[in-house]
Amino acid sequence: MSKKIKEEEIIKRLKAILSSKRYQHSLGVRDTAVKLAQLYGVDLGKASLAGLVHDWAKDLTDELLLKKAEQFGILVDNICLVCPNLLHGPVGAELISRELGIQDQEIREAVAQHTMGSEKMSTLAKIIFVADYIEPNRNYPGIDRLREIAFKKLDLAVLMAAEQTIKYLLEKKEIIHPQTVLTRNAFLILSDENECRR
Ligand SMILES: [Fe+2]
Ligand SMILES: [Fe+2]
Fold first, then answer.
1. pLDDT tens-digit readout, 49-103
2. Is residue 31 part of a domain?
3. Are 102 and 108 in contact (CB under 8 A)?
4. Ligand 2 centroid to 4 CA: how many Å?
5. 150-157 — which CB contacts under 8 Å span 24+ positions?
6. Ligand number, closest to the Cα atom of 25
7. Torsion sign (Cα): 72, 66, 80, 158
């Protein structure tokens, strides 16, 4: 099967399983990820595929996400029990292997980490994490600055994106998963903006 046909088939299935807004978002993340990959020297095919399928499990019900996580041996901590949607990354990573035959470890990891990030991320994982925030359909205060930084300093863009999530969750009085804080701290330490170092 040629790559083109495979992508067409994935797109068809994606359209069937996601809401139309989420489907458009997925295409946006794919296109943005390819642009970032060109700049940061990442395989364009991998970036395109990872961007396209990153939200593969996003529209599963909470019940199904918890069931699949248990079935796949994915750790479900207390926070994920309360907010099962946080599991759509790791569950999606497993599902794209099982349902689409995507076995590439780097793509799986990028999908698994796209919601909360990780202290250690591959360039591909950083690209998907950031593309998720800046794709053309996104709109929130400060997005123009993040879009600009994404194409200049990828690590700083990861930090800004994690902070954007933390601020948003604080404002909405929603639970913040500690992994998001760990990601934020790790990328803050990498950056020049760490007050503790001064
Ligand atoms: Fe997502
Ligand atoms: Fe997304």
1. 999 999 999 999 999 999 999 999 999 999 999 999 999 999 999 999 999 999 9
2. yes
3. yes
4. 23
5. 150/36, 151/35, 151/36, 151/39, 154/36, 154/40, 154/123, 154/126, 154/127, 154/130, 155/126, 155/187, 155/190, 155/191, 156/187, 156/191, 157/126, 157/130
6. 2
7. positive
Ligand nearest, relative to CA of residue 113: 1
CA of 5 to the centre of ligand 1 (A): 25
Identify the domain containing residue 125 by its residue range. Answer: 3-141
Q: Domain for residue 190, yes or no?
A: no
Rounded to whole angstroms, how far apart are CA atoms 88 and 72?
12
* pLDDT tens digits for range 10-41: 999 999 999 999 999 999 999 999 999 999 99
Ligand nearest to the CA of 29: 2
Rounded to the nearest whole angstrom, what is the distance from the C-alpha of residue 4 to the centroid of ligand 1?
24
Domains held by the chain: number: 1
> Where do we find the tokens 């803050």?
188
Instruction: Give the CA count within 13 Å in the CB-facing half-sphere of 89.
Output: 21
Instruction: Give the Å distance between the CA of 56 and the centre of ligand 2.
Output: 9
**Cα 53 to averaged position of ligand 2 atoms, centre (Å):** 9
150 domain residue, yes or no? no
pTM across the whole model: 0.95
89: CATH: 1.10.3210.10
